[in-house]
Amino acid sequence: DLAAQKTDTGRVSILYDLSYSYHKSKPDSALILAQQAYKLAKKSKFLKGESWALNGLANAFHSLHNYPRAIEYFIEELKIHEKRGKPKNMANTYISMALVYSSEEEYSKALAYAFKAEDIAKKNRFADLILYSKLNIGDIYEKSNQLSPAMLYTHSAYELSLLQKNDLITGTSLNNLGNIYFKRKDYANALNYYKKSVPILENVSDLNTLAECNLGLARVYKAQGKQDSAIYFAKNVYDLAIKNEFFARAVDAGTFLSKLYKEDNKIDSAFAYQELTVNLSDSTDSKERAKEVQSITIAEEFRQKEIEEAKIKEAEDRKQKLQLLAIGIFIPILFFVSIFLSRRKVPKRVIEFSGVVSLLMLFEYLTLFIHPFVAEKSHHSPIIEIIVFVIIASLLTPTHHRVEHWLINKLTKFREQHLLNRQALVKKDVDDTPGSEIEND
Which is nearest to 83 in space by CA: 379, 371, 373? Predict the structure, then answer.
């Protein structure tokens, strides 16, 4: 529960989880939640949380079909993973970017990022990511009609899924193999793989892929001249898609049924499904256009907020730099004041105090100056920062004591020398007066 969370990190985690759960069904809500998570993570300097939020923003923009914006946020997420040295997270982000480019039908770019994910997974022996990358590479090859490498990678994913006992990937890879064999017009093998896929997909409740698989079965039966079986499976797809709001699948199934009925001269049924499909397609197109407008609007709002936040941050940075500059100017002034006081008739303790203060300020200024660098390199880890500053303190403290001792001695000598000079000057003035000369005579 968000309200019950007392820590910023906990709130960021919940906001991201909510954003992820909404990114397909309510991408606009997902965007708002991810933005809130990002602001909170940024404010609390929670770098891991920033990467979560950026992932949420990217997924939401992907669902809104704003692919350039999705890629932009995935790249920002990737930078954080690189900074934190998290290869598994990097590989996951590469897979996500591959899926975005695949949605754009930019298959060469999609493959490039999928191969990057596979390379990282292999080097680090991430078994689950090797599986996912192979499945996605096979799927991208199939969509781009490069069927030989598609077969190689998809079959490899299927075998790995059996070894890892990952039923979700097993069902998906069997369906994808059915798609590949169907494109090859090897209908017997396509039918075999589709049939194997159905019970597994039902068991893991992957209804979207199940709809795709059943439509594949319908197409195979149509190719084999089994019209009744084709109609049966296509109707199953249509009903399943409508029930679960897989509108793109419903349009595909409706179009398929309309053509089937037309070929059988069942004009009424053909017209009925054609009308349903047209209405559904128009509704889907309207929703897609609304999504695009919504995406542009939200993107512009984000841009304006980012500009505003950048201005605020720039003003804060400028203020901080001016303060550091003022401190940097004040320290030598204080040091010269100490020297000036050493040449005046003031108590020794005042001179020592001003010298010590100037030195303390110098060393604290150095610590303050290097703190941002240490914080960045340690990724804001309190433990690492403490260790680094303890080491720095162990080096600076003896130096501080030696410099302090040297400075006080110098200032004291300046003061004593100045007093001696003044005494000598006074004595000389006395000796040079006329009254003194008479007295000496």
Answer: 379
For the chain, the domains span 307-429
Task: Express as a percent the part of the chain with pLDDT over 70.
Answer: 67
Query: 3-state DSSP call for residue 441?
Result: coil
Burial class (CB in 10 A: 0-12, 13-18, 19+), 320: exposed
Q: Residue 211: which of 182, 169, 272, 253 has the closest Cα?
A: 253
The count of residues in the chain is: 441
For 12, 37, 58, 83, 303, the CA distances from 43, given in Å and listed in that order, are 11, 10, 20, 18, 18
DSSP string of 44-87?
A: TT-HHHHHHHHHHHHHHHHHTT-HHHHHHHHHHHHHHHHHHT-H
Q: Within 10 Å of residue 147's Cβ, how many Cβ atoms?
A: 16
Tokens of 386: 């403490």
pLDDT in tens, 338-380: 555 555 555 656 655 665 666 666 667 677 767 777 766 766 6
Distance CA 302, CA 146 (A): 39
HEC profile for 278-318?
HHHHHHHHHHHHHHHHHHHHHHHHHHHHHHHHHHHHHHHHH
Please answer whether residues 9 and 44 qualify as being in contact, where contact means their C-beta atoms are separated by less than 8 angstroms: yes
For 177, 204, 252, the CA distances from 193, given in Å and listed in that order, are 6, 17, 21
Kindly report the CA angle at 80 between 77 and 84, in degrees rounded to 5? 145
Q: Is the pLDDT of residue 204 over 80?
A: yes
Select from 174, 224, 167 the least CA-distant residue to 197. 174
Rounded Cα–Cα distance for residues 217 and 435 (Å): 130
CA 327 to CA 357: how far, in whole Å?
Answer: 13
Threshold 0.85, pTM exceeds: no
Give 113-143 pLDDT, tens digit per residue.
999 999 999 999 999 999 999 999 999 999 9
